[in-house]
Write a structure and sequence with these properties.
single chain; alpha/beta; binds adenosine monophosphate
């Protein structure tokens, strides 16, 4: 399976991406997790990303695209992948399309998680308290939601035009949302 998972911060993408990667026996590639690990290890990539992450801004496209393209070349992605948190801009989506077209293995679906803004703010405040994520502080949360609306939401149309969009109601217990996703993916017509 080759999937991307789209949705605002707090929509539950990470939780569901892990489950989907297990279900489809493919790689779970979460760009935010890769950046956080690099920040923690003090790598050059971590240093390049940290100021953007702390502000709730997007890391520049060239940095993210290079990182993801390298990751997709690794062995565990040959069986497919669930991309969580990438693409977040049209330029990233185009770079992904180009790469997958070169490989002759196009994307199969773009899941779009639908959640109300009230629910997002509630979930993100809970996550800030539980996980001490600096970028879950309230002001930064609002900024991240704005960044999503401006830079990432256009990808919903981008994938809808390509017939790949699979919208999912992401409000409800985790297992219920997983079932909805699997049901929706069952219905898609897979490219050969
Ligand atoms: P996430 O855990 O997916 O919410 O990502 C945390 C932070 O990492 C984001 O707020 C961005 O600063 C950065 N980040 C993760 N993925 C991307 C991406 N595809 N493009 C740009 N920045 C990203």
């Amino acid at each position: 399976m080759r999937l991307v998972v789209l949705g605002p911060p707090g929509a539950g993408k990470g939780t569901q991406a892990v489950k989907l990667a297990v279900q489809f026996a493919c790689a779970d590639v979460a760009t935010g997790d890769i950046f956080r690990a690099n920040v923690a290890q003090g790598t050059e990539l971590g240093r390049a990303a940290q100021e953007y992450m702390d502000r709730g801004d997007l890391v520049p496209d060239d940095v993210v695209i290079a990182m993801v393209m390298e990751r997709l070349a690794s062995q565990d992605c040959q069986a497919g992948f669930v991309l969580d948190g990438f693409p977040r801009t049209v330029a990233q989506a185009e770079a992904l399309d180009r790469r997958l077209a070169e490989q002759g293995s196009p994307l199969e679906a773009a899941l779009s998680f639908d959640v109300t803004e009230d629910e997002l703010l509630r979930r993100l405040a809970g996550r800030a308290a539980a996980q001490h994520r600096a970028d879950d502080a309230e002001q930064t949360i609002r900024h991240r939601l704005e960044v999503f609306a401006i830079k990432t939401r256009p990808l919903i149309d981008y994938y809808a035009h390509r017939g790949l969009l699979v919208p999912v109601d992401a409000i409800g217990p985790i297992e219920v949302v997983t079932k909805r996703i699997l049901g929706a993916l069952d219905g898609i017509r897979r490219p050969a």
